[in-house]
């Protein structure tokens, strides 16, 4: 059995001016596992994802992927192992949907032809429940839910081993949220990918997670299997998952 | 006591502004070096370059054409009126030509394209920054500097000399139209005087200025957008910064280039 975690964070810290967003974060994510990071707004969840991807550089600490430093080796090869669904979709406005989905496959030396890339994009769009007619539309012509699905299709297009989901259900109605959550769960299991999701949405947490980690005050406050979340005994986690205004987490009124 | 506090505050604000200016200069210089390093190293996105050539060049033709046409006409009227004071009305064709080609063509085209293109580049990249599209490019194994910045800066540098060439011609035509229709110049003599007076050096200096201005407006548009702040206000500020910084740099670099190309 392979004991090396797929993603390992060791003492990761990141500050913006005097604000310490991440303070000595330690976290392990096992291969094939779906880890969901929860926590209030501004607790550094998105920053954590961006640090792993190298979009932001941590001030201190180490990030290991399969036991090797994320900052060593070929950057393109490193990034090709990841897919990411952004909070707002982050679709490229100037490109049609199919080109957005197949963007990575049209780059580099092994790039696909336009026809092959379009066919593959349509296949991935079908996988997320979108019809082939959507392929030639532009992102501005899509609803929020459809944009999320296109973003999901783009994240899985190159069949990455690690997929990040940043607030996948933000701004969606409850039914569409449920659809996206189910899609994420199905796709992650089907691909055998390691998933890391950040969200505030407890229905997403219960639908997607194998394990949960709660960030508070820049630190991992609690981590454990999803089955233990309701009986954790941690007052911070308890307040968060039960959406209570009273508790150790201060709320600004 | 109050006077001392006021003077201290005043000096402190000057110090802060100076430090801010030096820091901005440093950041632009780093961005410039980074852009140059990506221009000389692949991969190159030729399709993207083609889009930008069309967008910056072809679609700027009307604004450059109209600006230089009316400026050439106004220049002819001014030189005629000024020349009449010492019986030198006949210099209109030659001065319009030299004025347009050496100075007004590249500077006006530079300023107009800065207003049209640098602002739109800054708004586009700023929006891409705010909506995480630039981060998305990175996660898709695409370097945003190579995909977004290099094609825009290179396209602006390539098309500006072409735009200025067209602008110079239209500007001289504007002078010609006013000269012939309003000031009773002989058409053939006007053209002959223009052609005879212009030298090859005038044209090359015009094109050199144009290329440098194109590089400046492309770079400042990209720099402002790429480093845009958050939200609509951040993008708005980036757009303003792009136009203001590109315009001021174009005018100051124009003086330096003129000193260099036409030493007194």
Structure description:
The complex is a heterodimer of chains A (253) and B (264). In chain A, strand 4 (60-65) and strand 5 (68-69) form a beta hairpin. Chain A is globular. With 253 residues, chain A is α/β, with parallel strands linked by helices. The termini of chain A are far apart. Chain A has helices at 45-53, 75-79, 97-101, 114-127, 144-156, 174-191, 202-208, 235-241, and strands at 7-16, 19-29, 34-38, 60-65, 68-69, 82-85, 162-166, 194-198, 211-216, 219-225. Chain A has two domains: 1-81 and 168-248, Rossmann fold; 89-159. Chain B has 264 residues and is mostly helical. Chain B has one domain (45-259). Chain B is built from nine helices and no strands.
Briefly say what this structure is.
The complex is a heterodimer of chains A (253) and B (264). By secondary structure, chain A is an alpha/beta fold. Chain A has helices at 45-53, 75-79, 97-101, 114-127, 144-156, 174-191, 202-208, 235-241, and strands at 7-16, 19-29, 34-38, 60-65, 68-69, 82-85, 162-166, 194-198, 211-216, 219-225.
Could you list some keywords that capture this structure?
heterodimer, A: 253 residues, alpha/beta, Rossmann fold, 2 domains, six-stranded mixed sheet, four-stranded antiparallel sheet, 8 helices, 10 strands, 31% helix, 24% strand, B: 264 residues, mainly alpha
How are the secondary structure elements laid out?
The complex is a heterodimer of chains A (253) and B (264).
Chain A: E1 7-16, E2 19-29, E3 34-38, H1 45-53, E4 60-65, E5 68-69, H2 75-79, E6 82-85, H3 97-101, H4 114-127, H5 144-156, E7 162-166, H6 174-191, E8 194-198, H7 202-208, E9 211-216, E10 219-225, H8 235-241
Parallel strand pairs in A: 3-8, 3-9, 6-7, 7-8
Antiparallel strand pairs in A: 1-2, 1-4, 4-5, 9-10
Chain B: H1 2-39, H2 46-57, H3 61-83, H4 92-130, H5 133-139, H6 144-181, H7 187-197, H8 200-226, H9 231-261
Helix pairs in contact in B: 1-6, 2-6, 3-4, 3-6, 4-6, 4-7, 4-8, 4-9, 6-7, 6-8, 8-9
